[in-house]
Automatic annotation (TrEMBL), chain A:
Keywords: Membrane, Transmembrane, Transmembrane helix. The lineage of its organism: Bacteria, Pseudomonadati, Bacteroidota, Flavobacteriia, Flavobacteriales. This is Rod shape-determining protein MreD. The chain crosses the membrane at residues 12-32, 38-60, 72-93, 113-133, 145-163.
TrEMBL record, chain B:
Belongs to the MreC family. It comes from the Bacteria. This is Cell shape-determining protein MreC. Keywords: Cell shape. Residues 109-257 form the Rod shape-determining protein MreC beta-barrel core domain. Gene3D superfamilies: Rod shape-determining protein MreC, domain 1 (2.40.10.340), Rod shape-determining protein MreC, domain 2 (2.40.10.350). The keyword Magnesium does not apply.
Amino acid sequence: MNNIFSVDSIRFIVLVLIQVLVCNNINFFGYINPYPYILFIALFPVKSNRVVFILASFLLGLTNDMFLDSGGIHAAACVFIAYVRPVILKFSFGTIYEHHTIKFASIAFGSKLTYITLLVTLHHIILFSLQVFSVSKIIFVLQKTLFSSMFTILLSMIITIIFSQKPK
Amino acid sequence: MQQIINFIIRNKNFLLFLLLFSISILFTIQSHSYHRSKFINSANFLSGGIYNSAHKISTYFNLKSQNQLLFEENKRLKSLLYNLENTGHFTYSDSLLLNKSYYFSNAQVIKNSYSATDNVLLINKGTNDSIQQDFGVITTKGIVGIVDKTSGNFANVISILNSTSSISAQLKKTSHYGSLTWDAKNPALVQLKDIPKIAKVLVGDTIVTSGQSSIFPKDIPIGVIENYNLDAAENYYEINVALFNDMTNLEYVYIIKNTNKPEITNLLNE
């Protein structure tokens, strides 16, 4: 248990630093940035206490907001996907989730892609609608969501594949 | 009573979610209103320190272009200095004798941002260098923004590329003035609104600050007119202005303090 906790704290710090120092300066085509920091939420242990999980996600979002001067948009999006994660887990992994035996390193590529796609898209829709904060610019929000989601999903899949331990 | 406690325990996840979500929405709404914003901001010890050390490394990569900019400005200032009419009679030994109304100090941008809709910069000077809220920030080429939150060593600057920013600007030629806003689409183009229909507007005309806001002095360059059209009511022009500044590679900036500002605000509030 202690081991898992320290792994998650290190992941928290490393992902925030990567996000703040590298990913926010990419500005592909002027405005497209990936947000791979939500891998922390995606890879958080399934069995853990939900109260701790939601609080940790809020803290993650708030740390990002502090660095990016963005009010509370990251915190809102993170808390939301942390709350709905069980539903997404059930949808993507079906019955395996019921038995609480998910190991993120050993699941099939297809269901992992579904899982990350759903999380990222939800997160980005909330993030950009709060950032733009105007109903009349809905097309702009959707456009930003689409491009940034593709970038984030690609980057997240690559990171999870590179850093996964092969089951022995 | 028992039931209420039971209800809270049963729904603790949802209630926690609701609480945290409303806190974040509150922060978001606050950050969208000008100058009452940012309970959470990057001008603090932790994020300022991290940005500062990262900037110490990245600053080496554009030394050459920044050098070129400073060189050009030096050239311009030299030509101003030697073409003054009464040259040779500068005997000021104390800068106080100049009785300046604007004081300049310099700073470096340690966090730049231009891809969001509300962009905020971070500079490496703060209250320890007597930087306060509402000081103007410019570069050698044009305006950058207005100082917002300050801490000991760092300050946030609300960039002109921010949907809440609105700066008074005018046509250099005819002195018709309007307010400068940004539509969050292109970091090289800002919008000048409320220029009356009667003004003669031409593509390529220069836009400068109007000096009405007591933040910026008059005649600081902003940009040139890219294109223009009348608004829906056909009373005012909406003008796209191409900025002189490249907002994507800001490095050295100047901060302007207007020493007459307390007097002006006092007078206006009476």
